[in-house]
Amino acid sequence: MRKLMLLLFLLVFSNGFSQTLIQRDPEIAQMVKEISTDSLQSYINKLVSFGTRNTLSSTSDKNRGIGAARNWVLTKFNEFSRQSKGRLTAFIDTITYQPDGRRVDRAINLGNVVATLKGTDQKDDRIFIISGHLDNMRTNVMDSIGDAPGANDDGSGCAAVLECARIMSKHSFPATIIFVTVSGEEQGLLGATYMANKAKKEHWNIEAVLNNDIMGSNHSNETNIIENTKVRVFSEAFSIQDTGRRALTIRQLGLENDGKARQLARYVKEIGERYVDNLEVVMIYRNDRFLRGGDHTPYVENGYAAVRITEMNENYTHQHQNVRLENGIQYGDLPQFMDFEYLRKNTAINLSNLANLSKAPPMPDSVKIETRRLTNTSSLSWQAPKTGKVKGYYVLMRETTSSVWQKKIFTDETSITLPYSKDNYFFAVQAVNETGNESLPVVPGVAR
Hints:
alpha/beta; Aminopeptidase; Immunoglobulin-like; 2 domains; four-stranded mixed sheet; 17 strands; about 30% helix
């Protein structure tokens, strides 16, 4: 009896812990360790010191307003550039934006601060973007004079961008990474729209955009929930460009939950939880919060994979509010309401995903699933990516009701037949290299 109990214990122990193995790329793990709460706090305190960063505020004052803030961000990027052996370059990308009759009442100098860490593989034209918005607002979005701290909205996103640039600029990646703090978000996503449209016009090969907006506070008003072990990632089901034949294919294959942004969200969850302890990435099946928007939206509308990363529970007494004490409640987006350890973890999600994507090979080409005859097996085939060093491929599987991939099957071939019916499962294929960095997954098309 004792032997039987021991055997049962060993079986339970083995089964219970057989899935806990996590393989981390040592280089990425070390970068994650270098993320500093002190650095993040110093960035936010400096951003708050500019008084206001309203998009309509001064661009010429050296100490106050959006102009002073973006000049400081440029200075930080240039500081990081010195450790990059010339691979990181930065500038302020500006345009003159005319009054629009909505949230811009005069011509303004609109500027995004952009730092580009050039990829080392000249044949690899992939681009990965991390973004936060530099501007902020008071209760009245048109008030460009009064103080507006903007510590969390969106000092937190900008701090994450800066910290990722500080650490990653010391490393090299085959693909290119762009770190950007945009302006004009509160006035209608102006800076992000300008950049996304420019990317589309110039045919940038953007594979992923991580937009960070309001990600550094751990508690909500009204419900009084305190939670710093979960973060939300918002993703659109599919692009508004998916019309006509593309929309018909989505319906025929049941791919309403497998658009580019949704695939990126799954990837963010898997990689983020691989490298960041005590943090669950919660997928939200919306492009953004209810009837609201963010800087990833212009990219989604241009056909790119883009998601929004946001804290689990927002506090509206500290968002879009004039600083004041009213009925015993402190209003205003002040640094004292930040949780810098939570912000560190959320920054680590960004860094680990950017690094894993940029180190990985490009996605496999021409991924197809065989449909010429009725079978209870599923046969997939694909071609190697045109650039990059590939060790092999992961074939991903999930049940049709599952939000995340449930199995990863490795092969060094470019085809596979699995004893699972395509009626009951979704499949995708990733390319993977020697250090275990995997590309974004590609859902198969139909081989006829």
